[in-house]
């Protein structure tokens, strides 16, 4: 089984969350599947000094930065099609909400990368499963906006501690057609009808071990969907 991993750079504040991305690759390998990393070949929104949190006066390319995580084995998203994968995973990090879409900049009104939208829509219409981790569900919600596909998605729970505005992000996703659900870092949401798995990961105030387990759970559910193409509820 081949699983696409859509990266958005390297580093939580301006790219893919590195731990989430690595745990995703590890979970895929542990399930006996093959990860295929892809990323947009474009300039990232900005570059952040991860020590100080300040923006840096330089430019970096999303594909080149994603190669840091993929050990160089990453392809241009523009060439990716549904024929390449049995399933797709979108790790989180601010890069998902800056470089894949611009939720971190403009909320639900922000733009989405055209190739990101194209691939997600094609996967959903081909009934090939997708997993969104952390802020990844906002990318899925934005890609499905206006398509009359009301996906059940989660970015976390308001019932437990979070460093982010779970309620506000959830409401924004609802406003563009999603049906959000609350889930803790010990849970994942599986939308069997649309074949989408979402997990909160570092959207919650979670330990590295909890995030690793949350991602492993999500990948298992993703592979279960891929192995059961007729499954619906």
Automatic annotation (TrEMBL):
Q: Name one Pfam family in it.
A: DJ-1_PfpI
**Domain DJ-1/PfpI: where?**
78-143
State the Gene3D superfamilies in the record: 3.40.50.880
Q: Which domain of life is it from?
A: Bacteria
Q: Which PANTHER family match?
A: ES1 PROTEIN HOMOLOG, MITOCHONDRIAL, GLYOXALASE ELBB
Name the NCBIfam families for this protein.
PRK11780.1 (NF008747)
Q: What is this protein called?
A: Isoprenoid biosynthesis glyoxalase ElbB
Q: Which organism encodes this protein?
A: Aureispira anguillae
């Amino acid at each position: 089984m081949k699983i696409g991993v859509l990266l958005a750079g390297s580093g939580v504040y301006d790219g893919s969350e590195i731990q989430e991305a690595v745990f995703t690759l590890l979970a895929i390998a542990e399930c006996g599947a093959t990860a295929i990393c892809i990323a947009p070949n474009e300039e990232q929104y900005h570059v952040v000094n991860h020590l100080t949190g300040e923006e840096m006066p330089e430019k970096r390319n999303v594909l080149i930065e994603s190669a840091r995580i993929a050990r160089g084995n990453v392809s241009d998203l523009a060439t990716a099609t549904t024929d390449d994968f049995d399933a797709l995973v979108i790790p989180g990090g601010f890069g998902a909400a800056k470089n894949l879409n611009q939720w971190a900049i403009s909320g639900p009104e922000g733009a989405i990368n055209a190739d990101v939208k194209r691939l997600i829509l094609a996967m959903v219409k081909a009934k090939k499963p997708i997993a969104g981790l952390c802020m990844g569900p906002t990318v899925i919600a934005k890609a499905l906006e206006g398509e009359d596909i009301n996906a059940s998605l989660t970015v976390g729970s308001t019932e437990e501690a979070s460093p982010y505005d779970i309620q506000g992000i959830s409401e924004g996703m609802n406003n563009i057609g999603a049906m959000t659900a609350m889930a803790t870092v010990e849970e994942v949401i599986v939308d069997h009808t649309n074949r989408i798995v979402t997990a909160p990961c570092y959207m919650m105030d979670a330990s590295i071990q909890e995030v690793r387990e949350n991602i492993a759970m999500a990948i298992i559910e993703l592979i279960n969907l891929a192995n059961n193409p007729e499954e619906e509820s």
